[in-house]
C-alpha cells in the first residue's frame, strides 16, 4: 500500500501530470535549423509577455527536458499547469504563461536532413 500523499488528490486541480503535446503541423515544411531559430526567438522575447523571468527560465528548462525531469522542474518552480502539454501555465501569483507548440515538440512536417 502507498501512503496517502503518493498520488494526486482528485480535489487538487493545480497538479497535472505533464504529457507530450499532440502531433501538430507547421504551415510549411521547416528544417531543424528554422525550428531552432523560432524557438530561440520565442525564448529571447518570452519575458516581455509578462510574468517572472525565473518562471520563463523554468518553463524553458522543462520544455527542453524529458517528461520526468520536466515534471520535477515545474513542481519545484511552483508552476501551475492547466494544460498538461505545458501550453498554458500560471505562476503562484496568477500570471499566465502561454507556450507555443513549436517550443514543446517537433512538427510532423519537419524536414529531416539526410
UniProtKB/TrEMBL annotation:
Pfam family for this entry, one: UBD
DC-UbP/UBTD2 N-terminal domain sequence ranges: 16-112
Region annotation (Disordered) ranges: 1-30
Name of the protein this chain belongs to: DC-UbP/UBTD2 N-terminal domain-containing protein
Organism: Nelumbo nucifera
Classification lineage: Eukaryota, Viridiplantae, Streptophyta, Embryophyta, Tracheophyta
